[in-house]
């Protein structure tokens, strides 16, 4: 399982060896709003369509003559998979008008007015930089409970419920308090440190399983004019994709649970301090690609695929999103965070994997049953295989890879999950408290630290302050691990 015992002697002092230095600067807090008030409006009327007659072919009781409206986030997975599923929906309900489909990257700004006015679409892929705050939507009762979908018969086997066809953890991820399921995460994402096996081989190196090895490899690359790391500088909330499992590996998954629960002093845990100091050392030693704080996710991925940097924290959507700039011999791979030292609580291989690409059916959707039916179609084996083959990602459907030739990136994701075994973590803060995660922890905290404008100690203090404020904010609903 990737034990670091072979590196005991060289790793024991890693925490004490990490030096601290600061480049003083002002902490800038962004002003962009993430739907903090979008769900507060109760005006308007959704004019819901009448329900249809339930049958074996129509178990959700979809109105066969009602139009379906779908809004898809136009990101790494594109929209073709949704269009293909919509064709199947259209074939199942030929009397309905053509599905109204829209793809956009401006989810929050385009849909907030519609939520406020009570006229949201029937199905939304709530993803991307302008993702709507799921915690707010759930807390304000703006989403439909997807339990009817989960208890409906699956497309492939009428004797099996949809919920019984899903990967472990998918149902639980959609729950916030109690039994209702508010979100269906369609993609199954492996987060971690992404790299090119080809580029490592050019340096006669393998993926570093310890932090000392990571620093040594970065130093080796720097001599060749290659940066060790890059990341989405304009969206530094990508950093936790490798940083959070690194924290869990060092201090145990309970450290992440405490952070999710907004517990006092959670961010002051020694594991957080050690992880922050390790990442800050990448900045201190000049192992971050020059200009990274000023580039976005696409630019950082492009620099990475062009070989300007060895490593990038990301999710498994990166293979499809960066496909246009990825050389054919790149051999894209993903790995778990390196071990910090021999006192880490969890073994090498500990990784973050969970449902991604969250789909929601608004409570005031005109055709909520149609939205759920569209998801039922998407959760068939055929749709899952189509998605996996076209966008290089697993889905929430537990299967869908038989007969497919997997890319190196997908295969490494599957292999990483096998290596992790039970050591798979799933931080919930990114969907429980979107503003806190993106604007505050990400941009105002980690973004400033990795740009050298704040030390780890200053960053921890600032982030703990943000978390404490969120915990005391009675205008937002709070969640805890059960």
Q: Please indicate the percent range of residues in DSSP E strands (runs of 2 or more).
A: 5-15%
Question: Which descriptor suits the 3D outline?
Answer: globular
Q: State the total count of DSSP E strands.
A: 10
Distance between the termini: 28 Å
User: What's the gyration radius in Å?
Assistant: 22 Å
Stretches where pLDDT falls below 50 for ≥5 residues?
1-45
Can you write the helix and strand succession as a string? Answer: HHEHEHEHHHEHHEHHHHEHEEHHEHEHHH
Specify the number of helices. Answer: 20
Question: How does this structure look, described?
Answer:
The chain has 482 residues and is an alpha/beta fold. The chain has 20 helices and 10 strands. It has helices at 8-11, 14-17, 80-92, 107-117, 134-139, 147-151, 170-173, 197-202, 211-223, 240-251, 253-260, 270-284, 297-305, 318-321, 368-378, 381-391, 408-420, 429-432, 434-450, 456-472, and strands spanning 69-73, 100-104, 123-125, 184-196, 227-229, 309-314, 332-335, 351-360, 394-395, 424-425. Strands 1, 2, 3, 4, 5, 6, 7, 8, 9 and 10 form a 10-stranded mixed beta sheet that branches. β1 (69-73), α3 (80-92) and β2 (100-104) form a beta-alpha-beta unit. α3 (80-92) crosses α15 (368-378) and α10 (240-251) packs across α11. The two termini are 28 Å apart. 53% of the residues are buried.
């Amino acid at each position: 399982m990737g034990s670091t015992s072979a590196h005991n002697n060289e790793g024991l002092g890693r925490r004490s060896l990490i030096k601290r230095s600061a480049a003083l600067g002002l902490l800038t807090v962004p002003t962009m709003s993430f739907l903090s008030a979008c769900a507060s409006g109760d005006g308007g009327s959704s004019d819901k369509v009448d329900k249809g007659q339930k049958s074996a072919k129509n178990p959700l009781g979809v109105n066969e003559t009602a139009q379906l409206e779908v809004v898809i986030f136009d990101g790494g997975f594109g929209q073709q998979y949704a269009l293909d599923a919509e064709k199947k929906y259209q074939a199942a309900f030929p009397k309905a008008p053509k599905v109204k489909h829209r793809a956009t990257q401006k989810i929050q700004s385009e849909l907030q007015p519609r939520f406020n006015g009570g006229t949201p679409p029937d199905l939304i892929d709530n993803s991307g930089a302008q993702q709507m705050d799921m915690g707010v939507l759930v807390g304000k009762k703006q989403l439909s409970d997807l339990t009817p979908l989960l208890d409906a018969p699956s497309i492939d086997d009428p004797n099996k419920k949809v919920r019984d066809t899903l990967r472990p953890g998918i149902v639980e991820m959609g729950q916030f308090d109690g039994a209702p399921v508010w979100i269906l995460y369609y993609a199954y994402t492996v987060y971690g440190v992404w790299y090119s096996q080809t580029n490592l081989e050019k340096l006669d190196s393998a993926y570093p399983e310890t932090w000392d090895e990571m620093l040594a490899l970065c130093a080796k690359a720097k001599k060749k004019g290659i940066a060790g790391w890059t990341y989405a500088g304009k969206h530094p909330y990508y950093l936790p994709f490798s940083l959070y499992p690194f924290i869990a590996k060092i201090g145990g998954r309970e450290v992440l649970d405490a952070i999710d629960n907004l517990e006092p002093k959670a961010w002051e845990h020694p594991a957080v301090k050690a992880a922050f100091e390790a990442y800050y050392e990448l900045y201190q030693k000049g192992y971050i690609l020059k200009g990274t704080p000023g580039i976005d996710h696409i630019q950082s991925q492009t620099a990475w695929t062009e070989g300007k940097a060895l490593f990038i924290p990301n999710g498994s959507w990166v293979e499809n999103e960066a496909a246009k700039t990825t050389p054919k011999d790149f051999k894209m791979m993903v790995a778990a965070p390196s071990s910090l030292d021999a006192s880490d609580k969890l073994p090498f291989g500990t990784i973050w994997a969970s449902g991604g690409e969250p789909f929601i059916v608004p409570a005031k959707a005109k055709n909520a049953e149609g939205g759920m039916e569209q998801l039922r179609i998407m959760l068939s084996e055929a749709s899952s295989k189509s998605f996996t083959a076209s966008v290089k990602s697993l889905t929430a459907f537990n299967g869908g890879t038989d007969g497919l030739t997997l890319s190196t990136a997908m295969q490494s994701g599957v292999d990483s999950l096998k290596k992790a075994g039970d050591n798979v973590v799933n931080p919930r803060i990114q969907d429980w408290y979107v503003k806190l995660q993106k604007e505050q922890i990400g941009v105002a905290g980690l973004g400033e630290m990795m740009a050298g404008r704040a030390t780890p100690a200053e960053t921890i203090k600032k982030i703990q302050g943000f978390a404490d404020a969120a915990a005391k904010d009675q205008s937002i609903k709070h969640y805890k691990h059960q």
